Amino acid sequence: MPSDHRKRAAGRDFLLASLLVAAGLVLSGISLVEIAKTNVLMAQATQPLRQSPAAAPDNAPAESKPGGERPTTPAPEPARPDPQAQKEGVKAALPPAPAEKIAPPIQQK
To answer: Closest Cα partner for 72 from 81, 64, 84, 80?
Structure first.
C-alpha cells in the first residue's frame, strides 16, 4: 500500500501548489485593480505665473535695449578696503603647517 500513500501525498501536494498559485493570482489581480484606481497627482515644481506683473521698484536699474541708449542708473562700485588693511596685505586663511608635514623642495633636473 505504499503506492496509495504516495499517490495521496502527491495529490495533496498538487492541491496545495494549485491553491498557492491561485492565491498569488488573486493578490496580483487585486494589486493591479488598486493601482489602476489610484489617481496620480503630480507635484508642481515651479510657482504659477502671476496674472498681473508686480510694480517695479524705483531703485532698479534701467532696462537695457538692444542698440539703444545705455541705462542711466550708475553701476555698483567695487568694495575698497581701508588703507590700513591695504598696508597689512592679505593674511593667510590657515596657520602654517607644522614642520613634519612640509615636504622637502622638489629638485630640478
So the answer is: 64
What average pLDDT score do residues 11-34 get?
A: 95
Taking a C-beta distance cutoff of 8 angstroms, is the pair 74, 61 a contact?
A: no
Instruction: Give the number of other CB atoms < 10 A from CB of residue 19.
Output: 10
For residue 49, the Cα-to-chain-centroid distance in whole angstroms is 24
Q: DSSP 3-state helix, strand, coil percentages of the chain (rounded to 5)? A: 40, 0, 60
Please name the helix (run of DSSP H) or strand (run of DSSP E) that holds residue 24, with its range, or none: helix 2-37
State the cell numbers at 107.
629638485
Write out the three cell numbers for 19. Answer: 491553491
Tell me the per-residue pLDDT of 34-83, one tens digit each, with 9 for 90 and over: 888 877 777 777 776 666 655 555 666 666 667 666 666 777 777 777 78
3-state DSSP assignment of residue 99? helix
pTM of the model as a whole: 0.34
Tell me phi and psi for residue 58, to 5 degrees: -75, -25
